[in-house]
DNA sequence: GGGACGATGGAC
DNA sequence: TCCATCGTCCCC
């Protein structure tokens, strides 16, 4: 499936909606506000292009979609958008392709997994045009099926915490590096992404800065279902203490 | 080849 | 608030 088709299919889903982006004169930070129906999406980021903005659109339309793996089904409640080379300084693909980010530059609808802090795995869905290297980080969700299995994998934690955070979500799904580069849309890999059982409406969605990123820390490309208990807490980037 | 640091999570 | 722990990537 071509990348552009995948992105478009998300946009045409039941949870498609339009937003507009503005910069607050008071705080200087970016925020997103719902736009009138039928209004095309304005792109206000001076350092972003239209393709990059489409990643953010794809990310928020993924809320409510369900990711299935290893007998556990998770309804996505929190995601983040990351754009490609030379566009988004917070993206792994920002400086161009590397061995690690090869998958990001490949076909849409494939999983990009990466190892972080020497101990955790995180899961992205590649999207956008071929070579664009855009991806959506799956940050959190609600376990809607395979609860016992998820509990077994995550240990003794409250159910709301089973997939409350990108690394926790990966553990609950039981996936690792083996999923890297596999399709999440055609059933040939360990992961399968399916449309919402409970659609998410625009009024339910909040947007804000991405968690823990140092660069572009004010870009509101984190999207979550407002008030959902499975959404992870916001934490700003903390610079490493120098020895 | 060295070293700084991270799209985190869990213990205090 | 602190820090485990190691792959990645920049830089010398």
What average pLDDT do the residues reach? 81
CATH architecture: Roll
Please state the CA-atom Rg, rounded to the nearest Å: 17 Å
| Quaternary class | single chain
Please give the count of helices. Answer: 4
Structural class: alpha+beta
Overall structural domain count? 1
Please, what is the CATH homologous superfamily? Methylpurine-DNA glycosylase (MPG)
CATH topology: 3-methyladenine DNA Glycosylase, Chain A
Total beta-strand segments: 10
Strand content: 25-35%
- Helix fraction, binned, reads 10-25%
- Stretches where pLDDT is under 50 for at least 5 consecutive residues are 1-47
Distance from first to last alpha carbon: 48 Å
CATH class: Alpha Beta
Sheet bearing the most strands, described? 8 strands, antiparallel
Report the order of strands and helices: HEEHEEEEEHHEEE
Looking at the structure, what is the overall shape?
globular
Describe the 3D structure.
- This protein has helices at 3-11, 50-61, 147-154, 166-173, and strands at residues 19-23, 30-34, 66-69, 72-82, 111-116, 120-127, 134-145, 191-194, 205-208, 222-225.
- The chain is an alpha+beta fold.
- It has one domain (3-225): Roll (3-methyladenine DNA Glycosylase, Chain A), CATH 3.10.300.
- The strands form 2 sheets. Strands 3, 4, 5, 6, 7, 8, 9 and 10 form an 8-stranded antiparallel sheet that branches.
- Helix 3 packs across helix 4 (166-173).
- The longest helix is centred in the first third of the chain and has 12 residues, at 50-61.
- It binds a DNA duplex (12 and 12 nucleotides) through residues 80, 82, 90-92, 95, 98-100, 114-120, 122, 124, 137, 139, 165-168, 210-214, 235, 237-243.
